[in-house]
């Protein structure tokens, strides 16, 4: 487990690029679709709550997908995804705010903006239902305070997914007022994935907080493992993007049914 060591060069490059990106032209105001309610709806329908990620490429995956991201998003929803995650980081992940805008207009599920927000002005880029804030990145950069950014995001109508990797980061997130917490199984020092990270950290998350398992989920068995450990939902990107997106999403959203 990453305990706060040196950040990997690829991650450092992402942070350097994020530091230099500005916000949009004006303050964003969002009428957000509820992420917890979307998870509840999936459960009621007999589906495993999954956030499927539209990810053209990344530093930790080989190759890229050139399909229309809107078509990919629609296939994910057809496959049962409770919500979507869309990369808006351009340099390392091939994303853009315009892609998120198009996807959100095309679907009726909550859409998470996956990017590396360090300053309040970077919230004002595009309407999304959920914004990602990463405890380690904010701590590393010493930029805007997590509690202040969380409040600023909520003032604009965003829900906020606060990403953690250690028990200490979970404590920081809860102290800042987070009510949706992600535990990333990938450390930022070696970029290695260990699913036991979630299992170790999850018990420290209060029951009234929506808990999401992130990174490294390759099979339906992995999803079942995370759900058994307490995940309310799982965020899955590369494993879905690597094949038939609709069918791969369906495999993950029906994993508990097929395991029973």
Automatic annotation (TrEMBL):
EC class (word): lyase
Indole-3-glycerol phosphate synthase domain span: 27-251
The UniProt record lists the keyword Cell membrane: no
The entry's keywords: Amino-acid biosynthesis, Aromatic amino acid biosynthesis, Decarboxylase, Lyase, Tryptophan biosynthesis
UniProt-listed Enzyme Commission number(s): 4.1.1.48
An example molecular function term from Gene Ontology annotations: phosphoribosylanthranilate isomerase activity
A Pfam match: IGPS
Gene3D superfamilies: Aldolase class I
Catalytic reaction(s) noted: 1-(2-carboxyphenylamino)-1-deoxy-D-ribulose 5-phosphate + H(+) = (1S,2R)-1-C-(indol-3-yl)glycerol 3-phosphate + CO2 + H2O
Gene Ontology biological process terms from the UniProt entry: L-tryptophan biosynthetic process
Pathway: Amino-acid biosynthesis; L-tryptophan biosynthesis; L-tryptophan from chorismate: step 4/5
Source species, domain of life: Archaea
Recorded family membership: Belongs to the TrpC family.
Protein name: Indole-3-glycerol phosphate synthase
């Amino acid at each position: 487990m990453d305990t706060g060591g040196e950040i990997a060069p690829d991650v450092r490059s992402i942070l350097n690029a994020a530091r230099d990106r500005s916000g949009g032209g004006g303050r964003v105001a969002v009428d957000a679709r509820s992420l917890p309610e979307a998870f509840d709806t999936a459960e009621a329908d007999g589906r495993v709550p999954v956030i499927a990620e539209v990810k053209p490429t990344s530093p930790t995956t080989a190759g890229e997908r050139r399909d229309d991201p809107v078509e990919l998003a629609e296939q994910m929803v057809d496959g049962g995804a409770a919500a979507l995650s869309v990369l808006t980081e351009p340099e390392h992940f091939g994303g853009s705010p315009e892609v998120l805008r198009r996807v959100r207009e095309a679907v009726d599920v909550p859409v998470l903006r996956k990017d590396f927000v360090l300053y309040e002005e970077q919230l004002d880029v595009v309407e999304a239902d959920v914004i990602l804030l990463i405890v380690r990145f904010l701590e590393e950069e010493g930029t805007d305070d997590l509690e202040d950014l969380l409040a600023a995001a909520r003032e604009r109508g965003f829900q906020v997914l606060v990403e953690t990797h250690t028990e200490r980061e979970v404590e920081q997130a809860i102290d800042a007022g987070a009510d949706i917490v992600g535990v990333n199984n990938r450390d930022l020092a070696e970029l290695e994935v260990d699913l036991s990270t979630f299992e170790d950290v999850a018990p420290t998350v209060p029951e009234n907080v929506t808990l999401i398992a992130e990174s490294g989920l390759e099979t339906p068995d992995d999803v079942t493992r995370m759900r058994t450990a307490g995940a309310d939902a799982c965020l899955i990107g590369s494993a879905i993007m690597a094949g038939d997106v609709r069918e791969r999403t369906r495999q993950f959203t029906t994993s508990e049914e097929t395991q029973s």
